TrEMBL record:
The active site is at H286 (proton acceptor). It comes from Alteromonas australica. Transmembrane segments: none annotated. This is Homogentisate 1,2-dioxygenase. Fe cation binds at H329, E335, H365.
Length: 431
């Protein structure tokens, strides 16, 4: 794939044009735009949102988006939208890697919902989807009116064409597509597989650093936005949308990727997870996983997330005289985990790349028995966790598995057995 050009800086006001002079200077919507383009604004927050949180972009395009047919309903496939009524047992759950698709399948047709919470109707919560694709979205585009999409590849490279430009994406990177932005995905590898977080709530933003100060975690300069790129293509295209939990399709007599210039702070972006600046303990105790937060979707309650996107990347572990793996805990938050590569330090067996686990609100969890025994007996020398990358989607709402998730052969119904070796070690005497 040819090397693409990007703009940098998270949520900054960007301006970019594919033709010189296409971007109006000093007036976003002049009486007549150069090249006879149409001015169209995309707002992904309310008009009256505060200046700090307001997100909108002006686009200058060959045709306005309303140049299309009416929408008609289409089959949902394996997509589920919250609220859904499947009973949610409080059990710890884990899934083996989900198989690649054999039949020709594009990104949208390859979506399967694993879990969801909240309600897309009230803009609270999220859905967690799996994707498996081996075919391009030929003359087909998609946008989601229910929430923004966080795409987390686990296997395979893809090219995302959007109204704002193009993004290349591969494992160890993520991409975020704002609510309402049209996009199409070309599969570069033979197979592509990964996870999608559909965020119904407030748009993802960078978490506050608190006492960490000005540097650390994910830095603004490492987020990349596409430069303007457009197609002057009059071949018919199909536009698919997810709206109020349903799928609809409409006909366009042209490519929807016809934005010649844009300016604003609401646009697709990507981030390389290897750029995350880990802040880790060098003294004692395993810190809370919140120190690994890349992006957060805030809730109405300060300090409590609608969704946190957290990663567990390669890092040094230098803590002294302490238990280094994640501690046993019960949590008011609910935690969904996926594994991109390698092994996760608390689960050396059974949690594989392409798989997933779920520990809901107050469901106890922690290292398996073998990991506990090893961690309490080994000599504590500086240790480098290499060739590993896991992620967590953490929410203040219960994450409810779908019927597919509860009944798929990939579900490890014996997951609880990994803790059966945890026996009483109490002697009544200090060591």
């Amino acid at each position: 794939m040819a090397k693409l050009q990007y703009l940098t800086g998270f949520n900054n006001e960007h301006e970019t044009e594919a033709l010189a002079g296409a971007l109006p200077m000093g007036q976003f919507s002049p009486q007549k735009v150069k090249y006879n383009l149409y001015a169209e604004q995309l707002s992904t927050t309310a008009f009256t949102a505060s200046r700090a949180s307001n997100r909108r972009s002006w686009t200058y395009r060959l045709r306005p988006s309303v140049a299309m047919s009416d929408f008609a309903p289409m089959a949902l496939g394996n997509i589920v939208t919250a609220p859904h009524t499947t009973p949610c047992p409080p059990n710890a759950m884990r899934w083996s890697p989900f198989p690649f698709t054999d039949e020709p399948t594009d990104f949208v047709n390859g979506l399967t919902t694993l879990a969801a919470n909240g309600s897309a109707h009230t803009h609270i919560g999220m859905a967690i989807h799996l994707y498996s694709a081996n075919a391009n979205m030929e003359k087909k585009a998609f946008y989601n009116a229910d929430g923004e999409l966080l795409i987390i590849p686990q296997h395979g490279e893809m090219l995302i064409k959007t109204e704002f430009g193009r993004l290349s994406l591969e494992p160890e990177e993520i991409a975020v597509i704002p609510r309402g932005v049209k996009f199409s995905i070309d599969v570069i590898s033979k197979h592509c597989r990964g996870y999608v977080c559909e965020n119904y709530g407030q748009p993802f933003t960078l978490p506050e650093r608190g006492p960490v100060g000005a540097n650390g975690y994910a830095n603004q300069r490492d987020f990349h936005y596409p430069v303007a790129w457009f197609e002057d293509n009059d071949n018919p295209h199909t536009l698919v949308t997810k709206f109020d939990g349903q799928l609809y399709q409409a006909t366009l007599l042209h490519s929807p990727f016809d934005v010649v210039a844009w300016v604003g702070n609401s646009a697709p972006y990507k981030y390389n997870l290897n750029a995350f600046n880990v802040i880790n303990s060098v003294s004692f105790d395993h810190p809370d996983p919140s120190i690994f937060t890349v992006l957060t979707s805030p809730s109405a309650h300060e300090g409590t997330a609608n969704v946190d996107f957290v990663i567990f990347p390669e890092r040094w572990m230098v803590a002294e005289h302490t238990f280094r793996p994640p501690y046993y805990h019960r949590n008011i938050m609910s935690e969904f985990m996926g594994l991109i590569k390698g092994a996760y330090d608390a689960k050396e067996k059974g949690f594989e790349p392409g798989g997933a686990s779920l520990h809901n609100c107050m469901t106890p969890h922690g290292p398996e028995a073998a990991v506990f025994n090893k961690a309490t007996q080994e000599t504590l020398t500086p240790q480098r966790y290499k060739d590993t990358l896991a992620f967590m989607l953490e929410s203040s709402l219960v994450i409810k598995p779908t019927p597919f998730a509860l009944n798929t052969p990939c579900r490890q119904t014996d997951y609880i057995n990994c803790w059966k070796g945890l026996k009483k070690q109490f002697t009544g005497q200090p060591e």
